[in-house]
Amino acid sequence: MSKFRFNSYFKIFLFAVSSVTVLTITLPILVLISTQIPDYRMFLKTLTSHDVWGVIVLTYAAALTSTIVSVVLGVPLAYVLARYEFPGKRAVESFMDLPAVVPHTVAGIALLSVLGSSGIVGKFSPVNFVDAFPGVVAAMLFVSFPIFLNNAREGFAKVDRRLEAVARTLGASHSKAFLSVTLPLSARNIAAGAIVAWARAVSEFGAIVVIAYYPLVASTLIYDRYLSEGLNAAEPIAVLLILLTLLIFSALRFVFWREEDGASREAVIR
Fold it and tell me: Which CATH superfamily is domain 39-269 in?
């Protein structure tokens, strides 16, 4: 990767536009974090609150559960969409993308019509989804699944089919070729999709508030504190969630960066 040098008007333009973009995203976050400096006692109180940590752990656990389900259900579907043509494929792809583009309150209402106590699944299901942990997981899964699916499908599409064919000619079954060739070569896309889907699940609010306001997760807790106690009560929890998520993403990026950098150096040496 080359260093950025201001040796042309085009590069200056790129840097100027990029700077505005970065500032647009980072400024609200930095301002929010800075609000806790003069009122650090409230932040420390939040930092030591068992209730707040319980909600954050519940949020991360629900997001992790939804991500695991996304991987289990999404990998086979992503492979089918990447490798095969069949009638109605475009319709399936459109429906799979739909949860990512509709207002998430609409997603919550759609889930409630299926999983609610009078829904076509909910009235027969032994599992309660309304105002319960399974409902939180269902809402997170519904809105984050398209993100994972598209990343995994892109990863499978990049794998050269001739590599699978070679494995088959060497005696591997279709499933063994998939597990030993295609899946490992798509692992980076699958992992990236899972990470982003998990983060999207953590941030979900609209669908959750419709189907499962309780138990409170991070987004609904912040909203609840904002309505009941005002902005000052909601800000410390929001800042804590931002810092935790930033820490997790920084760690994951560091791991991925090291792996990519190591692979790049190996390629150069060879």
Answer: MetI-like (1.10.3720.10)
